[in-house]
Amino acid sequence: MMAGPHQCSGAMQSRQREESSRVAKVVDVADAGGNGASGDGAAPPPGPPWFVRERIFYGWWIVFAGWGLMVVGGGLMFHAFGAYVKVLEEEFGWSRAELSLAFALQRVETGVLGPIHGWAVDRYGPRAIMLIGVVIFALSLAAFSLVNSLLGFYLVFALIAIGASLSSMLSVSVAVVNWFQRRRALALGVMSTGVAAGGLVTPVVVLALEGWGWRTTALVSGCIVLAIGLPLASLVRTRPGDHGRTPDGLPPAAAAAAAAAMPETSFTVREAMRTRAFWLLSLGHASGLVTVGAVSVHLFVYVTGDFGESSATAARLIALLTAMLVVGMLIGGVFGDRMNKRVIIVSAMFGHMTGMLLLAWSPSFWVLTVAVAVQGTAWGARGPLTSALRADYFGPGSYGQIQGFSSLIVMLGMMLGPLIAGIIYDTQGTYTPAFLLLAVLAGLGSLCFIFATRPRPPATALQRI
């Protein structure tokens, strides 16, 4: 007999329930080797921790882990570097250009190792690399507390750069890009607010520097990195499919429909580097970081020196910078999944330019305050969206390596920004020419994003879908 429509419907629902049941029972297998496969007869690595397994989509726990690590790294070193510059200048008599060179060398180290870092993350998985990075970061901060020479200062900061880089943005971004597709910009934006939130720790670091001295502060910072960083890095997993989950936490049927409607093409590194978009995104990213690097290193001494304000006031301005950074990241994250990302990024680049022009002009403390707020908002809106746009263009398959090779160019911005500002200040006695030059570079960088259109997937990439 021919089955009636109700019987067919019931049979289909039964098969769907059985399929959902099988998916729900998939054993969580952690991606220790970066590919989610455990060899024949090998015991699978542990899956996500039991206390988070069923309560919330696991991708958000990875976002939380990345956020926490960025709070630690941003608060204890990245944003606090300007405060260290002040006390080291007073104790050792090193010039601002010499101290800025340490920050620049950090960026060189990160950029040069970027391709190796990206390859290692794609090969071994982000969790293993992040755990190694946390240990290096913590031990380097402890070694920093023993520094007595400029050469030792440079060597230690090179190690700090390696540890901080391995334990944060690039590594955890690989996992986030895999766990999110429709909400990718939001996830990267929320995670990146950790960098901003770390700036809110800067007043505490300043108090510690004034109360304990810089050596004790550095040593305690290393202990904090170890105590907080290791548990957070342990939460990271590479791909949702390795744990019976789907991107964005969608039901299996909805995930399959979304993948069919918007298939992601993954470029290899060589394929990506043959496109115009790869180079324009990298150059645009670098031009934005020129202003970020200069402000991060020199804002504290600019406020306390040129404006004659107290260290506490400078710390509050850094807190404002980071608060607006959070606002910008949330704006970029919310709207980045709903409208053209390049439009938001180009607007942010003009914000960078405006912020630097206001810093150069700054006839009053209030104009300085507005400049800091504009700079922070632009930084926040641009940063995560640039990473999301790169993932949209080139796919998640080789994202770590593509991001790593891009860092060879991107690091030039973070390196040259503080170095240019420091050299011009030492020779001219003022930051105004430096800020004007950096404003022009930010404006030119906006053109890179305007012309960085989506690349056409090569035939070889289409065959891998």
Written description of the protein model:
With 465 residues, this protein is mainly α. The chain has one domain (56-239, 266-456): Growth Hormone, Chain: A. 76% of the residues lie in helices and 0% in strands. The chain is built from 19 helices and no strands. The model is unreliable at 1-46 (pLDDT under 50).
Supply the key terms.
465 residues, mainly alpha, Growth Hormone, Chain: A, globular
Give a brief outline of the structure:
The chain is mainly α and 465 residues long.
Give the secondary structure arrangement, pairings included.
Layout: H1 5-24, H2 58-78, H3 81-92, H4 96-124, H5 126-144, H6 150-166, H7 169-179, H8 184-199, H9 202-211, H10 214-233, H11 252-261, H12 269-273, H13 276-306, H14 311-336, H15 341-361, H16 365-394, H17 399-428, H18 432-451, H19 459-463
